[in-house]
Amino acid sequence: RAASLGGLYGAGAYFAEHISKADQYCTPSPDNDANGTFYCFLSRVAMGEVHETSTGRPNERRPPNGCDSLVGQLDSTRYKEFVVYDGWQAYPEYLIEYKRT
User: How far apart, in whole angstroms, are the C-alpha atoms of residue 44 and residue 91?
Assistant: First the structure.
């Protein structure tokens, strides 16, 4: 997902390693059937040199310390969030259509 400067790690494109994390941000298509079909991209992301953090970094526009991206995890019980700040670092390879059960 793309976020505003107010996002937990600033204005980047956010990715997850688990679909259950990405699903938290999915909403059914308003033009779709009443059965609640959802869509999610499976993307390739070039992370490069990664900055890891366990604290939020709102208002970021670039990764810190000359890094190419950021991986944030507030604590060990939460999902990791992978953030890139340049659109060319991500390639949406597949569009996945699914229904929640």
Answer: 5
